[in-house]
Structure formats: structure tokens, C-alpha cells
Amino acid sequence: MLDRVNKLRELLPDEHSAVLITSDVNRFYFSGFRSSAGAVFITKDSSTLLVDFRYYEAAQSSVGSKIDVICYKKLFDELNDIILDKNIKNVIIEDDDVTVNRLSAFQKEIKAEIVTNFQLSDKILDLRMIKTQTEIDKIVTAQKITEKSYQELLNYIKQGITERELAVELEYLMKKNGAEKVAFDLITISGKNTSLPHGVPGDKTLCDGEFITFDIGAVYEGYHSDMTRTVAVGYATDEMREIYDIVLEAHKKAANTIKVGNACADVDNAARDYIISKGYGEFFGHSTGHGVGLEIHEKPTVYLTNDTILKTGMVITNEPGIYLPDKYGVRIEDMYLVTDNGYKDLALIDKELIIL
Ligand SMILES: [Mn+2]
Questions:
Q1: Distance 128 CA to ligand 1 centre (A)
Q2: How many domains does the chain divide into?
Q3: CA–centroid distance, residue 263 to ligand 1 (Å)
Q4: pTM of the complete model
Q5: pLDDT (tens digit, 9 = 90+) per residue, 176-214?
Q6: Ligand 1 (ion): which residues have CB within 5 A?
Q7: Which residue, 41, 212, 333, 337, could crosslink 344 as a Cys pair with Cβ 3.0–4.6 Å?
Q8: How far is the CA of 24 from the centre of ligand 1 (A)?
């Protein structure tokens, strides 16, 4: 946790500047403590977690001695004490988090200049791109919970069951298997609905000769997992198999470009060029992937316009797809860890087409 704080400190322009962290996700990232309210205030030589009475005892026992914990009645009073004590002139805020109303309160109450144009949110996302081993372990645990639950769900699938029932049952299994929650509204769609990349499970029942798309993930200790599998019910037509094989091959080609020094664009192009070469380019309308961590979508975006270079410790998804309107769609997604010598696929579940 101190490493992260120190990396943030390196961004401070001078000793009279400080950072005020207000978003839930970044308060957790820099303090290791989760709460629904509070702030983290970081100067060149101090870091303070400010919480209210509800969280004070838990916060004290949760954060190490390197971070001060203050219980506030009025947040601004405690902040101003530190600001005066440390001679802080500029307070940099999270531009993606602070609302217009909150900003005017800051400007009125905080006894320093409020810095809104530092692009702090983006700079923190840059730090969060590189995961520590502890963070990777949590993502892997979230993925294991997803896989166990998915495999249990496959046994539950029978004729007549609805998409909605699949989603509810899967969410139940994930929580039973240790997820604190699902990573997003689970996508369990079938037949024509699978041509909608982010379709919503409804009352449609499963039928033979249809695809089911499972785009699913769990959260474990704040960290998300993301996986998509497309399976067929009863049988698959030759065309369904052909589309599936193209997407799988695109996925493999993208995976093989995941290595330190390559750009996100290279990964996207590998999948996209192959799908285009097979004549389905217009049916792959989204990016090949995205970073995953404390949020389900974070930097970097794996797309042809992103020249961000892959570095060890990044976790990105690889999820090409082909969506034929009014027919069906296929997407195959795993999370990949960028390692010193290539990549590690964080999913263990096979990607070959299965027929239920
Ligand atoms: Mn995804």
C-alpha cells in the first residue's frame, strides 16, 4: 500500500501540494480500507485516511502504521488542520469523481487552492494498470470462483429453462462459492439475442440449435474477473461452427501478440485483421479488450487506436466476437496477464466449442 502512495507522491509538483482522494475505488486502492464515505489525503510526507464514526474502529485495525487514521465530525475541519500544519497551498482532486456541487463546497471550505486540471483520475488509472502479485492473486481467485460456478451451472441447464433463470442461478452459485458480488449484470443470453454484444437475459427459453453466450464475472476482495464462453444447445450448424472457429482463431492470434513491448493496438489488430480477412470485419464492432482490476473496465483499452505499450503486470481481456444481426453472435473472452516472457491466460476453462 505504501508503494502505491509513494508512486502517487512522485507526481506531486512540490511540497506545498497534496492529493485529495475521494472516490470509493481509489480510497480503497491507496488505504486498503473500504467504506462508503471518507477521504485519503496525501502530502509529500504524510498520508491520512479520514473516516467517520461508523468506520473508525475498523479503519484503525485495518490500515498499517504508515497511514494515519482520523475520525472526523466535519471532514473539512480535519483537512484544514492538516493543510495548515503542512503548509499546503494546492489540493489536487480527482477530476472524474468530484461533482459540480462538491467542487463548490471544496472551493468554499478548503483553505487551499483546488487544482482541477491535473488529470489526477487518469494518472491514478495509469498506476492501477500495473498489478502487484497480491492484486493478481485476487483477480485469479475471482476467476476461479467464476469457473467453478460456470461449471456447476452447465449441469443445471435443461430444456425449458429461461435466460433469466440462468443468470439468477449463476449469481447464486458465485456468491455461494465466495464472490462478494457479481462483477456486472451477468449476460446469459441465447439464440437471436446473442447477436447483441451486451444483451439482457429475459424470459426466452433455451432451444436446440442455438448458441448461449455467457459473459460472466465475480468480485473477490474488490477485484473483478471477466470471461465469455459461447456454447451450443443440442447441435450446431456448419455455419455456427465456422463462425465459432473464426472467433477462436482471432482470439488465439490476439493472445500470441500479448507480450511486453507490443502495443494494445497490435493485439487488437491481430484479432481484427483475421476477422476482416474472413469477411466478417463489419460484424466485429467493439474493441478486442480492456484492463480489469478494481473496476471491470479500466485502462488500457485494447483497441487499434491505443498505442499504450504492454508491460509486465497488466491484466487485459481478449474478447473478439462476430455478431450477425437477427441471427446469432459468438464471443470468446479470457483475461490475460502480461508477464516478463509473454502472457498467462488466467482462465483454465477450455475454449473449444461445446454442445450441451
Ligand atoms: Mn470484458
A1: 17
A2: 2
A3: 18
A4: 0.96
A5: 999 999 999 999 999 999 999 989 999 999 999 999 999
A6: 226, 317
A7: 337
A8: 22
